[in-house]
Specification:
There is one protein chain. This protein is of the alpha+beta class. The chain has one domain (25-162). The protein has helices at residues 2-21, 61-68, and strands at residues 78-84, 90-96, 102-104, 113-114, 121-124, 138-145, 154-162. It has a 4-stranded antiparallel beta sheet, with no helix packed on it. The chain has a 3-stranded antiparallel beta sheet with strand order 1-2-3, covered by helices on one side. A hairpin with a 5-residue loop joins strand 2 (90-96) and strand 3 (102-104). The radius of gyration is 21 Å and the shape is globular.
Length: 167
């Protein structure tokens, strides 16, 4: 009887530990891709990229020209394109399909980005992309604002967090 109680207790404790290892508390959960819908979707042939619209345009022109030929994949009328900038490093740019104007994301990512045609949120280093051993990586949630013709297109850092998975 004593062994049965001990085994029952141990299985309860171990089950609780296993459950905790799969959960991550995310203080930025409100900035999910579904909570900030995009505006009207652009339909048509994307405009050629305007290399002169950003000071770094000429340095990244191959990436930008290739990206501008693809249809929008972010926030209704923008195309995100990326290139490697070293080991675990990606540089990202946003191209307006209507005008060809370039915006570079303020930071580089180590573990990619997550975005959607239907959302104005970009998640740098999404939690699902970060290996368990990397607790020093920050997940950042950037929100696209403006760009409707009357206001300038800009990104603001909406939330950031270290989302450490338990081993």
């Amino acid at each position: 009887m004593k062994k049965l109680l001990v085994l029952s207790f141990l299985s309860f404790v171990l089950a609780g530990c296993a459950e905790q290892t799969n959960t991550i508390e995310n203080p930025c959960a409100e900035f999910s891709l579904t909570n900030f819908p995009a505006g009207v979707k652009y339909v048509g042939v994307p405009s050629p990229v305007n290399i002169q619209s950003h000071p770094a345009g000429s340095e990244f022109q191959s990436m930008l020209r290739a990206g501008s030929k693809r249809p929008p994949n972010f926030a209704g009328s923008y195309t995100i394109t990326s290139r490697s900038c070293g080991k675990n490093c990606r540089q990202h740019a946003v191209i307006d399909a209507r005008t060809g104007r370039i915006i570079f994301l303020p930071l580089k990512s180590q573990f990619g980005i997550s975005f959607s045609l239907d959302s104005r949120v970009i998640i740098l280093n999404p939690p699902d992309n970060i290996p368990n051993v990397r607790s020093d990586v920050r997940t950042e949630y950037w929100l696209l604002e403006g760009g409707d013709g009357d206001t300038a297109l800009e990104f603001s850092l909406a939330c950031e967090a270290k989302l450490k998975r338990e081993p």
